[in-house]
Amino acid sequence: QVHVVESGGGLVQPGGSLRVSCVVWGTPVTLYAVTWYRQGPGKQREWIATITSGGDTNYADSVKGRFTISTDNATNTVNLQMNSLKPEDTAVYYCNHPKSSWGQGTQVTVSS
Q1: How far is CA 56 from CA 15, 23, 24, 81, 103, in A?
Q2: 51-109 pLDDT per residue, tens
Q3: What is the pLDDT of residue 17?
Q4: Which residues contact 7 (CB under 8 A, 6 or more apart)?
Q5: SS3 content of the chain, % helix, strand, coil (to 5)
Q6: CA-to-CA dists, residue 104 to 34, 67, 74, 99, 101, angstroms
């Protein structure tokens, strides 16, 4: 059975950086596309980045140029490197795998 576990969230100041990670259990991470979503306070869950099985990446306009999604085959992990963070990036970040239910997410708070 496939499941995902997110980690790496925390409190960071505006302009700072943070990396959140998604460990995929039960299948090689490169077999399927994996997507990161986020849900801010009082907002709907929104798509922010996808990496395909072939390594192609796509980003929402709101994070393009600041966030980078990548895979680490050695640890079966999908990482999301977040730079130049803004208060509006505050949200619970979730990764999604097509063979898994949603994980518990990881909280990212951008505040001074």
Answers
A1: 27, 19, 18, 16, 23
A2: 999 999 999 999 999 999 999 999 999 999 999 999 999 999 999 999 999 999 999 99
A3: 98
A4: 20, 21, 23, 106
A5: 5, 50, 45
A6: 16, 21, 23, 16, 10
* Structure token digits, residue 102: 């949603």
Counting every residue written for the chain, the total comes to 112
Max Cα–Cα distance, the chain, nearest Å: 41
Q: What does the alpha-carbon distance between residue 11 and residue 26 come to, in Å, rounded to a whole number? A: 30
CA gyration radius for the chain?
A: 13
pLDDT tens for 65-76 read: 999 999 999 999
Give CA separation, 60 vs 49, 64, 104, in Å: 6, 6, 22
Q: Which two tokens stand for residue 22?
A: 């998604």
Q: Is residue 106 within 8 Å of 7, Cβ to Cβ? A: yes
How far apart CA 97 and CA 94 sit, in angstroms, is 10
